[in-house]
Amino acid sequence: xxxxxxxxxxxxxxxxxxxxxxxxxxxxxxxxxxxxxxxxxxxxxxxxxxxxxxxxxxxxxxxxxxxxxxxxxxxxxxxxxxxxxxxxxxxxxxxxxxxxxxxxxxxxxxxxxxxxxxxxxxxxxxxxxxxxxxxxxxxxxxxxxxxxxxxxxxxxxxxxxxxxxxxxxxxxxxxxxxxxxxxxxxxxxxxxxxxxxxxxxxxxxxxxxxxxxxxxxxxxxxxxxxxxxxxxxxxxxxxxxxxxxxxxxxxxxxxxxxxxxxxxxxxxxxxxxxxxxxxxxxxxxxxxxxxxxxxxxxxxxxxxx
Length: 305
Known about the structure:
The chain has about 300 residues and is mainly β. Helices cover about 15% and strands about 40% of the residues.
């Protein structure tokens, strides 16, 4: 499997990017990612350990990998890193207007189409913004609180505009500019408020504030906890890697052990409703991101009680 700055999770759970059917491999065993062209691996608290060339991976920051390194997950499973990291960085996508043939480059990991002042491509009749999100080698589209993966060559009809998705250049690394949209977002969450779970998302720049309770607050608590834990690690703190959690684990934290047989639609509905509440309060709803079995929160500061 190709590596990107987006963590590739390995374990026995079906929701992992690489699912391994071995009783000595933990449910969520390890994750591998690229950090400015260098591959890293981190053990996720596995029972039987992760080993690189025979040395056990310890500590919270992870271990660098080089092409040819042998990675063992427990006693039975061995993987090998092949190729070079440079060619596996994030793709550069573009949108070709079918009418004018003009190409709009997606320069960061967000590209907004709509009639608002923050739109990267203005479409006067699109009152509900469409957000295109780059996750490593993948492009996702979000509209109306829902998101899906977009294929290269696909034509997107957005209001009066038809845009064809293309790859326009070599892979590139993420930049600090990609985080700018969320630098003023702050989450404060607790599971033990006066009336139960409570979460507040604020935007220091605009003054917008969204208060949430119940399972919506629990969702933000769970995602915020993951974001804060990884942001404190020196090698898992860059923009692309931070805070992703498997949907099955998110569901388990919200609804309990029974969630191992969860219906993905339940979590999708909860994410949709939470995004809708954020949007109505003037908060960017796409600060909650989803991709192929994983969800994360995108903010700048988290306080968890």
